[in-house]
Amino acid sequence: MLACTEMITMCLQSAKHKHLRAQEQQQPLHSAGQGLTIFHDIFRRADKNDDGKLSFEEFNAYFADGILTTEELQELFYSIDGRQNNNLDTDKLSDYFSQHLGEYLNVLSALESL
Question: EF-hand domain location, by residue (predicted)?
Fold first, then answer.
């Protein structure tokens, strides 16, 4: 089974590519509603000052794992931060990642129901 950070990294990579394609095509990304508890928990752990938001420093410190560079993480952070307020609401971030889970969303939903 994948570790949480590996799953997040896969989602980050998928999210980056899908986000760029959607922007190019100007299509809205779909959203999903279940299976997000794990993301809320992960993002709460990343939120070191418990303000319900991730600064880039918190985002980078938590997700830097040597696969994505700091520049790639920064690019992703600012592409998600549509209002450019330098903070990502953890609920918004969970919603963003849920759009890129594919079949993993069904797995996470099943785990939540156990």
Answer: 34-69
> What pLDDT, on the 0 to 100 scale, is given for residue 103?
78
Mind listing the pLDDT tens digit for each residue in 17-75?
A: 555 555 555 443 334 456 677 777 888 888 999 998 999 999 999 988 888 899 999 99
What is the pTM (predicted TM-score) of this model? 0.60
CB 76 within 8 A of CB 15: yes
Q: How far apart are CA 58 and CA 47, in angstroms?
A: 6
Indicate the helix (H) or strand (E) that contains 60: helix 56-63
Alpha carbons 107 and 112: distance in angstroms, whole number: 9
Residue 63 · residue 73 · CB < 8 Å: yes
Q: Are strands 53-55 and 87-89 parallel, antiparallel or unpaired?
A: antiparallel
